[in-house]
Amino acid sequence: MSDEALNLRRSARILRRHIALVGVAAVLGLLAGVVFALLKPPMRTSSALVLLPPAVPGVSAAPTRYLTTQLVVAVSSPVLAGAAHQLHPAASVQTMRHWVTVSSPSADLIAFTAQGPTTAQAKDLANAMAVSYIAHIRTPGSPDALLLQRAVSAVGTSTATRLAVDAVLGAVLGTLAGSVLVLATRRDDRRLQQRNEIADATGVPVLASIPVPHPSNPADWAKLLDDYQPDAIQAWSLRKILHRLGLADGREGDGARLAMVSLSFDDRALALGPQMASFAASLGIPTTLVVSQEQDAPSMAALRAACASRAAPPPGRPGQLRALVGAVERAGQQPGTALTVTVDVVNAQAARPVGPAQATATLLGVSAGAATAEDLARVAVSAAGGGRVAGILLADPDPADETTGCLPQPARPRPVTRPSAQ
Question: Which class does domain 195-395 fall in?
């Protein structure tokens, strides 16, 4: 039972991670249901009753064999052909054969039940079949069958109801199909989503989980650098990180240097360093942001362009934030700067040493569901060198993740007490 519960939770996490794909499948199923309802509208049903003549003069009821024969005659080709000529527009005999059924409510009655896309078509077809049948069995000198009840109305599902039912059914089937597709193709996805998984893969605790903006051009990056306004929860998380690293007041020796390292394919995590630098500057800490010039990723190019256009801090800002582009491994302390934040990315397949050689602290930035354990291990080795990675910042955490990312502290071994010699 525990294995089944774990599998169900894992499947639920996979579906939440790819909820957009499941949603697209549900929308496609809904549209397919609507199209099906429009191409095959609901059929209306109408009935006409014919009173049979007595089989033998003076007998009021027909024998069973006579009635069975009349039911066969009622849907014979001559009767269908005669009814087809009465319809406007005319219908084929094969179509009418599928749309008409006959039954016997009593020993001397035959009911013609006809279907049609509209009420008028269903009524006309039922009446035409009854009239054609009466004409077909008429015998000179014998009593005629009578049209006891004409078809005057029709029943059936309305078009609006059919659209709603088919749309809902299509959405449900689409959701199921999308879920099965996601589980079948993404079950082996090894990218880490939860805080505990990320912390266990690197042996480094997750210090904070922060939603990040997604800049895509130099103007968006410049707006992040100049006007980053975190909410109360995000601001408290960033402030705790600065306090934990001893950087809250910007007085770490002759100038603190914080290295933020992320993976080259993880564009969301790239915003963590600029966010940290902008927040520190808003606290009044003179801050310099140094962006690596090693990588050619589009997101890095846009960030470098934004930094190159604003080497000097904008006037009127509470703090002082400078932005530079250069080699982060040789990034030194800038004049008048209390905190230097370096932003560098590393290719997990071709790891290289990253970050300044004398960084006060090195943080690893990663977004939920972006990297595998192997990717994080490689970038941690590249960033740590001698084991200097202080923690992990998680970008865009999974809202359903209830883990903390705090590594368990090993219990201190108790001293061994030897028994005293007697």
Answer: alpha beta
Helix (H) or strand (E) run with residue 48 in it: strand 44-51
Buried b / exposed e along 311-335 (16+ C-beta atoms within 10 A): eebeeeeebbbbbbbeebbebebbe
Asked if residues 132 and 83 have their Cβ atoms less than 8 Å apart, the reply is: yes
Model confidence pLDDT, tens digit, residues 143-159: 888 888 898 888 877 77
Residue 194 gets which letter from DSSP? S
Whether the CB-CB separation of 27 and 134 falls below 8 Å is answered with no
Q: What are phi and psi of 397, to 5 degrees?
A: -65, 155
DSSP conformation letters of 382-402: HHHTTT-EEEEEEES--TT--
SS3 220: helix
Q: Give the type of residue at 285.
A: I
pLDDT digits (tens, 9 = 90+) for 370-396: 888 888 888 877 776 545 688 899 998
- Determine the Cα–Cα distance for residues 404 and 195; give it in Å rounded to an integer: 6
Q: How many CA atoms lie within 13 A of 372 on its CB side?
A: 7
With CA atoms as reference, report the closest residue to 284 among 328, 250, 260, 235. Answer: 250
The total number of residues written for the chain in this structure? 422
Buried b (16+ CB within 10 A) or exposed e, 282-293: bbebbbbbbbbe
Query: Which stretch of DSSP H or E encloses residue 341?
Result: strand 339-346
Q: Where are the domains of the chain?
A: 2-40+158-186, 44-149, 195-395
Third-level CATH fold of 44-149 = Alpha-Beta Plaits (3.30.70)
Token pair for residue 134? 């009466």
d(CA 155, CA 47): 10
> Residue 34 has what DSSP assignment?
H
Per-residue pLDDT reduced to its tens digit, 215-231: 888 889 888 888 888 88
